[in-house]
Specification:
globular, five-stranded mixed β-sheet, alpha+beta, about 45% helix
């Protein structure tokens, strides 16, 4: 949920990309693919792209905190680390082997709904990537040990300290999530887990979790790039075909949630400037209202021309920066506005100004030019990511995302269409039904006076 500053560079980039996005309006890009399933349940997606001598390998496991039980938080994220520590036939760290073979964009990520691993290889190294992915899918448990668990437990706990507990405003983000999603809900806990739960993890718990969720029948593999389809199929069969399917994992069903009364929390932190978070439960990913929320976020906080930036940073000169986003998830999303105050400014005043902007949008529809700009901005970023075979948001990742959430890798045209179909009236409906004052969470963060502040990057109007 963090965002990097650099609006001048971003503005120039978006201006350069706008013509490409406009052309895409007339003719949407396509992602040709072939999808099939191995007898053990592994979903395979193949997409040829011969422009570069590269091939992207991307594996999504349908597991995340959404499957974790109370007291078992952080398991999926812990596995993101464990999966890179070697498996039965690969005692070394996989990253070192991949890098030695010329790989790029090597990473693994965990979010509330999924875990994925990906790398982009020279085309003649496809077999190596598939072998490494298959060995940790099928034989990671054989190489697990108390020493490896202790090592990665310490790494993850340190990561929590750095990214949550000792990061500016880190605890505020966690508190916001806890107020949005009640105890017992899969999203209530931080993706990274808690120290208490991580300390309680034992090796048998880890092995059991792995055997249940990290199996072919609970995964999808996307291969995109410069490869021969027949040879790729043969390699997939060779390396993944003999792996046991794994137990059946039932899909997690959405849990009806509602905030009946505004919730508030006040925190102090070792920061220089106060910050205000407003958050609402919002429509689920790919469901009606999700695209509207995403575009509303751009209208409110998508750069220097956005409404909140103009009002709070330029006109009122009471804010340092503004962020707005729709965090889309499978059980229910959340819409967030975060504003950092300028020195000496009141969060109560900032909140009133945010409410005034939202009220204006409820009363009067967004002008066509303003909504069109938000759509072009979204299209430009989306299409730019698709220029890459692998990595975050690249072709392989996009195909697997559609497969994971929708069971259909061929959803690109419908994804683009749902944003282009958003109307100003639809955004007003979202504001009036979901983003009301009585249904929100408000978290106010103020600097602690007893300790030196952690420096915060400065930005804003000049």
């Amino acid at each position: 949920m963090r965002r990097r500053h650099g609006w001048v560079v971003l503005g120039a980039l978006l201006a350069a990309l706008a013509p490409a996005a406009a052309r895409a309006q007339a003719q949407a890009p396509t992602l040709p693919f072939t999808k099939y399933t191995l007898p053990n349940g592994l979903t395979v997606i193949l997409s040829e792209d011969h422009r570069l001598p590269l091939v992207a390998v991307n594996v999504w496991y349908h597991v995340g905190p959404v499957q974790e039980a109370t007291g078992r938080t952080g398991f999926a994220h812990l596995f993101e680390h464990m999966m890179f520590q070697g498996s039965k036939h690969v005692p070394a760290r996989q990253i070192s082997i991949l890098e030695a073979a010329g790989a790029s964009s090597i990473n693994g990520t965990t979010d509330f709904d999924r875990t994925n691993y990906f790398e982009t290889m020279p085309r003649n190294q496809l077999a190596l990537a598939l072998w490494l992915e298959s060995d940790r899918m099928g034989f990671l448990a054989d190489a697990m040990s108390p020493a490896k668990l202790e090592n990665q437990r310490a790494v993850v706990q340190n990561e929590r300290r750095q990214s949550v507990e000792n990061a500016p405003y880190g605890m505020a983000g966690e508190r916001m999530i806890q107020l949005l999603y009640p105890p017992g809900h899969p999203y209530h806990a931080n993706v990274i887990g808690s120290h208490q739960d991580l300390e309680a993890v034992q090796l048998p718990d880890v092995v059991e979790f792995f055997r249940k969720y990290y199996a072919p029948s609970n995964a999808s593999l996307a291969i995109v790039g410069d490869f021969d389809p027949a040879k790729a199929r043969a390699l997939v069969a060779r390396y993944f075909g003999a792996l046991p399917a794994g137990p059946k994992v039932e899909p997690v069903k959405p849990i009806p949630l509602a905030i009946a009364k505004e919730k508030r929390a006040a925190l102090t932190d070792r920061v220089q400037l106060p910050r205000l978070y407003l958050a609402w439960l919002s429509p689920r990913i790919y469901q009606p209202g999700d695209a509207e929320a995403d575009l509303l976020a751009k209208v409110l906080g998508g750069g220097r021309s956005s409404r909140l930036y103009q009002r709070l940073v330029y006109e009122k000169k009471i804010a340092q920066d503004v962020t707005a986003l729709q965090y889309s998830l499978i059980l229910g999303s959340h819409f967030v506005v975060a504003v950092t105050a300028k020195p000496g400014q009141s969060l109560a005043v900032i909140e009133r100004e945010i409410d005034a902007v939202l009220d204006e949008l409820r009363r009067a529809p967004i002008p066509a030019a303003e909504l069109g700009r938000a759509k072009r901005t979204r299209d430009a970023r989306f299409l730019r990511a698709l220029e890459s075979l692998g990595g975050f948001g690249g072709k392989a990742d996009r195909l697997n995302q559609y497969e994971h959430y929708l069971g259909d890798p061929g959803w690109l045209d419908r994804d683009l269409a749902r944003y282009r179909a958003v109307t100003a009236t639809g955004i007003q409906d979202l504001l009036r039904t979901h983003l009301t004052r009585d249904r929100r969470v408000v978290v106010a963060v103020t600097p602690r006076v007893d300790q030196p502040a952690t420096p915060v990057a400065q930005g804003g109007a000049k």
